[in-house]
Amino acid sequence: MAAPVNSVGKPSAERPQINCTSFQKKTRSKLISIPGTRPSVQNGQLLVSTGVTSLDYLLGGGLAVGTVLLIEEDRYDSYSRMILKYFLAEGVVCRHELFVASAQDNPDDILQELPAPILDDVAMHKPVEQPRLPCEPQDSLDAMKIAWRYQNLPKVQSALASSSRFGHYYDVSKMMEPEIRQAAKCHSFYLPEHPTQSSATHSAMLESYSTLLKSLQEVIHREGFDLAAPMSKSRNILRVGLHSLGSALWGDDLSCQDNPTHRHALATFLYGLRALLRSSLSVAVVTIPSHLIQDRTLMGSITRLCDNAIALESFKGSERETNPLYKDYHGLLHVRQVPHLNCLTNQLPDHKDLAFKLKRKQFTIERLHLPPDLSETVSRVSRGELAGAAMVASACGSSTSGTKHLDF
Amino acid sequence: MFTELNSILNTSPESFSGGDFILVSDRQSDASFLIHHFLSFYLRAQCKVCFLSLAQSFNHYSSVSQRLGVNLTQAKDKGQLIFLEGLKESLSVLIPQAADTGSQAMSFLRNPAPGLQSLYEFVRDSVTASSSSVEEGTEEWGPPVLLVDDLSVLLSLGVNAGAVLDFTHYCRAAVCSQLQGNMVMLVRCDGGEEEYDGDVEGPEWLLRCLTHQCSLTLHVHGLPTGYCRDIHGQVEVCWRRRRGDGQHTQKKLFQYKVHDKGASFFARGTSSAVL
């Protein structure tokens, strides 16, 4: 949904009267409150968490509702699958509805492997407080009162983290308890169980994709995620997880041939998916085995039809595994695309050298190294010196154009 | 509307030349901010605007334009703006319902082979309607303008690059030559320029052919030295003026930074981040 928060709860026909002025009170965003969502600071988009806090930070606070996150799979699909599971687990914990589609594993199997949430941590602490390490003895804190005013400040973290917590933490070493999992409403789409009805009308799209799109649309209409539908009492978010689209099991030959016969099938599907999501309260994560797709032009057009795109490059099996530079990490993360939503600028990340690692219990994304410090905010040569130089230049009779920074 | 860009291009909403085909392209960067510029520019210039939005939804353009000081919903109600929302139209084609009420403009999705004739007919009807409906007492609008956000979406959806080229040619004949209006189109490529391998289907080929047709190109690409937070890329502005004694081209290169409500353009190396 590319609509700002304030239009979410209303039918779109009411918009003209509301948006006649650019002066809007921020308080209107309180109209809609779905658990597990928050409005974006920058553009008022409704955001949901991906479940990985550092990924949320990277995407500008979270995934905007109505958008698609494309994950280019790593070579063995282990880490991309983990992010997908994080995304679904976050949905379970926030009581969102899920839609899981896969052609390889049964979606129920994917759901059984969701990581266990660390729930007590979330319930007990206020967002400003940092979770204290359990091994830390309380009395040692009482004893040391030198820097008492700093004791409530958050600890310095090397991992990226959003300032306020609306995502949850998960323990990937444990599975989620079945009773938590079954509380969430889940729609699954397992391709072998869906007989593809042949219809001659779809020439641009494969049968498997059009069946998937159709069943997704049915769920959206039936369960009332449609924005055009009259507002029911409570609104909820539909989280769509599509696993390994474009692989051979979907009947697609993108990944096996240099010159695929269904060249535009996946792109057309993603276009339809974007159209569906923009008009509903749903958000999707799609994984694609991009390392199998040889055609870069094709991959570029697929990326552009998604909103966010990240690529995982695992070190597993590559010679980088033994490189001392990367000894702390399991792979590199490339940000391919960040969305433009309802604003001219996009939230560019600070830097693009990012790496991920899988700790014993947690998946995190960290900076590989700091970028060179070139920015408009950094203090450098004082402006007075520049002005002095400009005066000398004008005294010499050279150009006296009023440009601030450049006067040779 | 970015005033800095207006002064670079030497135009303003009060005085601009007609009959131009402006091609906006990008490579490893995003040029859609220029589309927003042209949309607000021509709406302020009181032109009749036909906007084919294939990549984003109406809400997106509406909220960005609001920040740039133009109200799209009002313009649509007044009849100044004709907005084709490709995403919305495509759903009825991709997931056929019993009662098909969608317009025919996106029918190429059903079968891309016949080309973009229906889309062209939509454009022709909407730009020529402006001249015929004047007598109804509605406001009179200036020359028609056609804006297309992302021709490369058409390629992704399976339309032949030749068919896209036919479409642009027909539009140019109708809008630029016949009605002395303007046309702005965006083509997005990725990968380096040297990767072009004679592929007659790809966006590279389309970009080359369109560059040949147009009168002004704005080519946006990322910095050759890599990603920077404070300089978002560079724009190559290239005029191709047809004078009496043959063609005359002029090129200028600027770096740019997109802000919340506009963009700033500066000569290479003169960003406030490095000076």
TrEMBL record, chain A:
CDD domains hit by this protein: Elp4
Family listed: Belongs to the ELP4 family.
A Gene Ontology cellular-component term: cytoplasm
InterPro entries documented for this protein: Elongator_complex_protein_4 (IPR008728), P-loop_NTPase (IPR027417)
Biological role stated in the UniProt entry: Component of the elongator complex which is required for multiple tRNA modifications, including mcm5U (5-methoxycarbonylmethyl uridine), mcm5s2U (5-methoxycarbonylmethyl-2-thiouridine), and ncm5U (5-carbamoylmethyl uridine). The elongator complex catalyzes the formation of carboxymethyluridine in the wobble base at position 34 in tRNAs.
GO biological process terms on file: tRNA wobble uridine modification
Gene designation: elp4
Organism: Parambassis ranga
Lineage: Eukaryota, Metazoa, Chordata, Craniata, Vertebrata
Pathway: tRNA modification; 5-methoxycarbonylmethyl-2-thiouridine-tRNA biosynthesis
Protein name: Elongator complex protein 4
Name of one Pfam family that matches: PAXNEB
Keyword terms, alphabetized: Cytoplasm, Nucleus, tRNA processing
Subcellular location: Cytoplasm; Nucleus
Coiled-coil regions listed in the entry: none
Domain of life: Eukaryota
From TrEMBL, chain B:
Entry keywords, A to Z: Cytoplasm, Nucleus, tRNA processing
Entry GO terms, CC: cytoplasm; elongator holoenzyme complex; nucleus
Domain of life: Eukaryota
A Pfam match: ELP6
GO biological process, any: tRNA wobble uridine modification
InterPro entries: ELP6, P-loop_NTPase
Subcellular location: Cytoplasm; Nucleus
Presence of keyword Protease: no
Pathway given in the UniProt record: tRNA modification; 5-methoxycarbonylmethyl-2-thiouridine-tRNA biosynthesis
Family: Belongs to the ELP6 family.
Entry-linked PANTHER family: ELONGATOR COMPLEX PROTEIN 6 (PTHR16184:SF6)
Stated name of the protein: Elongator complex protein 6
Organism ancestry: Eukaryota, Metazoa, Chordata, Craniata, Vertebrata
